[in-house]
Write a structure and sequence with these properties.
four-stranded mixed sheet; nine-stranded mixed sheet; homodimer; 24% strand
Chain lengths: 299, 299
C-alpha cells in the first residue's frame, strides 16, 4: 500500500525576465513527490550524484517523501538550465547535463513492488517500462509524458501508454500523437491505445478528463502573477496521484477531485521559483484554493 | 418590463466544407432574439427590406419574438455571405450587401423605452449609442461587440462600453482592446472603462466572467460535430440576456446561470446551419445540456 513516483531528480538553473536561480531542486520526481506528499507518502524511484545537497534531502524528509528508492551514485547530479522569455511564452533549454542520470537503471526495492499507485512522471518511456516490468499486482498506473518522447522514443511510448490506466498529456501532444484536431477525438484515440482515463492538460485553459464517453473540465486558477512555470505539469500529476492513493476510489466523481487537487498544486507551483511554491503548504492553503475553484466553476 | 434586442437582420449565404445554404435567417438580432426567447419575450430593434421572407417573420412569431420595433423599408434586406475553411479554422467573407441596413436609424417605440433589459447585439457601436440615447430608466445594458469595431469605430465603441453594465467580448478582442496579454488583467482594464461585469468568450475553451475581483469560468460543451459556427456568440449573449430578463437577479450566482444558458444555446446553435439549431427547442433539450454541463464541470 504505497505510492511510487518514478522521475528525475535534478539541480535546476532557471532564468526568468524578473529573476534567476541556480542549483535549485528540480526534476519531475521532485515536483511530483512534493505535491503528492499532501495526500500520501510517496517513494521516489530515481538517482542522484554524491554531490546532492543534504538540504534538499532534508526538504523531502520534512514532507514525508521517502528516498529509500533513490540510488546515490558517485559523481554529479543531473543538471538542467532553462530560460523563459517575456510573459513565459517560450522556454529555451540552456543546458542538459545528465551526469549520473545517464546510466540510471530504475530498481524497485522488493518492499515497494506491490505499490498500489505507480506514478510514471515525465522521463524517458524506456525507463518507465523498466519500472512497470518490476512492479507486481494491479496497482493504478498513472503516466505523464511530453512531446520529446513522441519524436525520439515513439515505440517505447506506445508500449507504456498501452500498459497505463491513466494517461496525462498536454493539449498539443494529444493532437500530435493522434493526428486529430479536436480533443474529444484525440481522447478517444488515446483511450483505444489502452488507458481508461485520458487527462489533457491545457495550461491556462485548465484540464479535461475523458472516461467512457464522459467528459470533465476544470479551469486553471486565475493568478495575478506567475513566477516560474517549471514543474507545473509534474505538480498537477503528483497531486492527482497522491489524492488517488489516499482515496482509493476510481469513480468518475472522485477522479474529478483528483483534477481539482492537481489544479491547486499546479497553481501554487507557478507562483514561486523551483519547488518553493509547493513546500510547507498548510491544509488551509489547499482549502483556500479549493474554495476559489468552487467560486470559479461551480454553479 | 421587456427585453430589447438591437442588432442586424440578414439573409445569409453560408458555405462549409460539407454543405452550403443560401438566403437563410442570419444577423446578430436573429440569433440573439431566438436564443433569448426561451426565457423572455424579446423585442427586436432592426430593419428589413420589403423582400424579407414571410416564413422568417412567422418563425420569429412562433418563438414570441416581437417585430413591432422592426422597420420595413422599400428595398432589399441586408445580405451576407461567408465561407468556412476545413475544420472551421478560418472564415472568409464572400460578400456584404448592406442594402436597406445602410440607412438604418434605430427608433425605439415609446412603449419600449423603459425596457428592463437592453441587449446591444453585435452591430456598429454608433447604432448602439443611438439606442442608448433613446431608452429611459435603469435597464440592464448588455453589450456585445467584435474586432471590426475596435479598428473602425474606436471612439464610439469606447463611449458605448462606458455606458454598459455587462460587456461581452471575445478573448482576442479583450486583449487587443486593452493591450494586455492575460485575461484577468484585460478584464480589470475593461471594468475600468465602465462595465461592472466583463464576460470573455473563449470559443472551444468556454467563457469567463469577471466581477469585483471574482472570476467564474464555464467550459464549452464537448460536441461531436460542428455544422456551422455562425451566430454562436450572438446565441450566447441572447440566452444570457433572456435569462437575466426572466430572473431579475444580478447576484454573482445568478449571473453564473446566465453563462450556463448562454453556453447551452451556443452549443445548439453550432450543431446546425443558420438558426436551425436554436429553433423549436423543448425544455427537455435545455435540461439535457444543463445536465451535461453539470457532469462536465461540477465536482
Amino acid at each position: 500500500m504505497s505510492l511510487l513516483v518514478l522521475g528525475s531528480l535534478a539541480l535546476d538553473t532557471i532564468e526568468t525576465p524578473s529573476r534567476s536561480v541556480t542549483e535549485v531542486p528540480g526534476g519531475s520526481a521532485s515536483y511530483a513527490a512534493l505535491s503528492a506528499s499532501y495526500f500520501a507518502n510517496p517513494y521516489i524511484i530515481g538517482n542522484i550524484g554524491s554531490d546532492f545537497p543534504a538540504s534538499i534531502s532534508a526538504l523531502f524528509r520534512d514532507h514525508q517523501v521517502h528516498l529509500e528508492g533513490v540510488e546515490v551514485k558517485e559523481g554529479k547530479t543531473f543538471r538542467w538550465g532553462g530560460r523563459y522569455s517575456e510573459n513565459f511564452d517560450d522556454r529555451t533549454t540552456l543546458f542538459t547535463h545528465l551526469n549520473v542520470f545517464e546510466d540510471f537503471k530504475p530498481t524497485i526495492p522488493s518492499a515497494f513492488k506491490n505499490a498500489s499507485t505507480i506514478l510514471l512522471a515525465n522521463i524517458h518511456p524506456g525507463l518507465q517500462l523498466e519500472v512497470l516490468d518490476q512492479v507486481k499486482g494491479d496497482g493504478l498506473v498513472i503516466l505523464d509524458t511530453m512531446n520529446l518522447w513522441i519524436n525520439t522514443a515513439h515505440e517505447d511510448l506506445m508500449k507504456v501508454i498501452g500498459r497505463s490506466n491513466i494517461l496525462v498529456i498536454n493539449n498539443e501532444e494529444s493532437l500530435m500523437l493522434t493526428g486529430e484536431r479536436q480533443y474529444i477525438r484525440a481522447a478517444a484515440k488515446l483511450a483505444d491505445m489502452g488507458p481508461d482515463w485520458i487527462i489533457i492538460k491545457k495550461g491556462q485553459h485548465g484540464a479535461m478528463m475523458f472516461h467512457e464517453g464522459q467528459v470533465f473540465t476544470i479551469p486553471a486558477l486565475a493568478l495575478d502573477e506567475v513566477s516560474d512555470p517549471t514543474g507545473a505539469g509534474d505538480s498537477f500529476v503528483g497531486a492527482l496521484a497522491g489524492y488517488l492513493e489516499q482515496s482509493r476510489d476510481r469513480s468518475f466523481d472522485n477522479m474529478k477531485l483528483g483534477l481539482v487537487f492537481g489544479t491547486i498544486l499546479a497553481s501554487y507551483c507557478v507562483e514561486d521559483f523551483s519547488v518553493d511554491g509547493i513546500t510547507y503548504l498548510e491544509e488551509a492553503d489547499l482549502d483556500d484554493r479549493y474554495d476559489e475553484l468552487v467560486t470559479m466553476s461551480q454553479f
